[in-house]
Amino acid sequence: THFGYKTVKTEEKQAMVADVFHSVAAKYDIMNDLMSFGVHRVWKKYTIEMSGVRVGNKVLDIAGGTGDLTKAFSKRVGPNGQVILADINESMLRVGRDKLADSGVAGNLEVVQANAEVLPFPNDFFDVVTIAFGLRNVTDKDKALAEMHRVLKPGGRLLVLEFSKPKNELLSKAYDLYSFKALPLMGKLVTQDADSYQYLAESIRKHPDQETLKGMMLNAGFARVSFHNLTGGIVAMHRGVKA
Ligand code: SAM
After folding, report:
1. At 211, which helix (H) or strand (E)?
2. Residue 36 is part of a domain; what is its CATH number?
3. What is the model's pLDDT at position 196?
4. What is the pLDDT of residue 220?
5. Mean pLDDT (whole number) for 113-120
6. Is 56 left (phi over 0), alpha (psi -120 to 50) or beta?
7. Dihedral sign from CA coordinates of 8, 33, 171, 186
8. What is the ipTM of this complex?
9. Domain boundaries, position 110
10. What is the pLDDT of residue 106?
11. 88 C-alpha vs ligand 1 centroid, how far in Å?
12. What pLDDT was estimated at residue 4?
């Protein structure tokens, strides 16, 4: 493969993803701000606006990591709502739990360790499910999308925020350079861990593009699937409704 990064077998992927997020958890938030120049906050805000979340809603933030979306949702749904921060990785969840406790948002929040492929929740339960920068790390994405569909109420919305394919050739070239050269270097300087950020760049390149992900959501049973390019398609926000 390009840039010398070795291809990993599917069955090894989950273990590698676990290593990556154990390793980056403590510095995850600061790296997000550095690597995206703070713009990840805008992408997340947009996702929350597009979710149509209301007071009293039940929300699942899967692969929620350090809880940025969870925190914003918990303010939106109010004391009678419920927000569940779920992630497969206990290191990320630990950072997330501390952050949520510090921010004083509590009462309507729960933290659950779970794999997106096997969600420990009943059918037709949530008004909104989000997965932000998480789907590309999941081994069986079709299975995970089917699970997200299952746990949504009819009329409930799935929002997938994920890196995607830049729309313009020049932006695409610049972005390639940035992610394969600058990202691992920043990772090395800030976290002494260049490999994790090399994985990040690789996983972004392998992730399905806008139309492919839209097709996967339709396959999983979602209706009215649409996507919105953000920052020239570097990121896309896909939205689907459970009919
Ligand atoms: N959603 C957060 C955000 O936007 O800042 C965190 C995103 S972080 C890049 C990706 C997260 O996906 C990590 O916390 C990782 O542990 C989690 N993850 C990876 N594979 C997963 C799986 N199969 N099920 C649930 N979470 C998973």
Report:
1. helix 210-219
2. 3.40.50.150
3. 87
4. 98
5. 97
6. left
7. negative
8. 0.99
9. 2-242
10. 61
11. 7
12. 40
The pLDDT tens digits of the residues spanning 169-222 come to 999 999 989 988 888 888 888 888 888 888 888 888 888 999 999 999 999 999
Total structural domains within the chain: 1
- Is residue 121 within 6 Å of ligand 1 at its C-beta? no
Q: What is the pLDDT of residues 48-88, one digit of tens each?
A: 999 999 999 999 999 999 999 999 999 999 989 999 999 99
Task: Report the half-sphere exposure of 153 (CA within 13 A, side-chain side).
Answer: 10
Choice from 47, 66, 87 to test ligand 1 binding pocket (greatest atom count within 8 A of CB): 87
76-79 contacts at long range (C-beta below 8 A, 24 or more positions apart): 76/48, 77/53, 77/108, 78/108, 79/107, 79/108
195 class by beta-carbon count within 10 Å (0-12 exposed, 13-18 middle, 19+ buried): middle
pLDDT value of position 2: 40
Give me the phi and psi of 112, to 5 degrees please: -130, 130
- Looking from the CA of residue 21, the nearest atom of ligand 1 is 16
Residues 221, 142: contact at Cβ < 8 Å?
A: no
Distance (Å) from CA 101 to ligand 1 centroid: 20
What's at 179, amino acid-wise? S
Burial status of residue 51 (CB atoms within 10 A of its CB: 0-12, 13-18, 19 or more): buried
